[in-house]
């Protein structure tokens, strides 16, 4: 009998283990059924157009089943799009506190929460989370925090962030932003050396060279103005309309106009209509009127532009006194038409303006607003 009991002990133990396992499975199934039932209730509210009650029900369920991160992130995004930022913030804050999140999920939730705070105008709270992400080497936080510092004009904070975490910066737009931060701080503190720091960045930016040239030009230091603007016009010829006339004045003042003409000749292939007009003016000054006509008409055949046509009218009027009055009237009409067209356009979002914006008011990108191109452009 005792031997039989010893034989039955393993059987009893195995039976107990199986029953225990089944019991745990049953509890898990029961919990899942309960969660599914609660989800169903929330969805039913939504389907019955009782949106507020349904969404509140799903938010409360978050504290029970926060492991469904993707679903709740989608829900929070929907809240944000509807302008219900308090609910979006609540979901992301609860998600961030949940212990089951992995590092990637936690970072994504923190980034989303920062975006909620920005839209709600809670910029200090947004900055706190974005700075934390940057310190933890999450480069995806750079775009929003650069935009934030641009909005609040906290140039020094942006520069400090760059100098402490420069290894995270890889996009050209990031370097352009920091270069402009240096420029803004240099202008506010009257410290040109900061602009020279901007020039030393890995990626070349337009504004530092332009501002340094303008500063020298204002002080009548034409040698320095030529130094900075010559480098700028060679690297970014499309930006010439902003300063090419001033650059010509610098060369003339130093009796180096022949060097300016040589520079313009070298830029003809990549320059716009203003570069071509400058070349025509150089030919006229040298007495090559016929050559100037031929060059301009040939250029307009290959690439018609309103500004080029206006200059041609002026050229024809100067040569033919009998038709000058008529041509002047036509040119006035053309000039009036040009005045109605914006001079600058953002290459990123298409925003147009009559003045240069280093930071596009529409898409908030730096140095994407450039002189207009095409038929009405430069």
Structural summary, described in words:
The protein is mainly alpha-helical. Among the domains are: 272-339; 341-378. It contains 18 helices and three strands. The protein has helices at 2-47, 51-62, 69-81, 85-97, 103-120, 123-135, 142-152, 155-164, 172-189, 193-199, 207-218, 222-235, 244-253, 257-267, 273-285, 289-302, 306-319, 324-339; strands at residues 344-346, 352-353, 369-371. The chain has a three-stranded antiparallel β-sheet with strand order 2-1-3, with no helix packed on it. A hairpin with a 5-residue loop joins strand 1 (344-346) and strand 2. Helix 16 runs antiparallel to helix 17 and helix 17 runs antiparallel to helix 18 (324-339). The radius of gyration is 34 Å and the shape is elongated. Mean pLDDT is 83; it is low at 1-15.
What tags apply to this protein structure?
378 residues, elongated, 2% strand, mainly alpha, single chain, 70% helix, disordered N terminus, 18 helices, three-stranded antiparallel beta sheet
Oligomer: single chain
Structural class: mainly alpha
Q: List unreliable stretches of 5+ residues.
A: 1-15
- Helical fraction equals over 70%
Note the beta-strand portion.
Answer: under 5%
Number of helices: 18
**In total, how many beta strands?**
3
How much is the radius of gyration in Å?
A: 34 Å
Mean pLDDT: 83
- The termini sit apart by 108 Å
Main sheet summary: 3 strands, antiparallel
Widest β-sheet, arrangement of strands? 2-1-3
Shape: elongated
Keywords: Metal-binding, Transferase
Pfam family, one: Zn_ribbon_LapB
GO molecular function: metal ion binding; transferase activity
Protein name: N-acetylglucosaminyl-group transferase
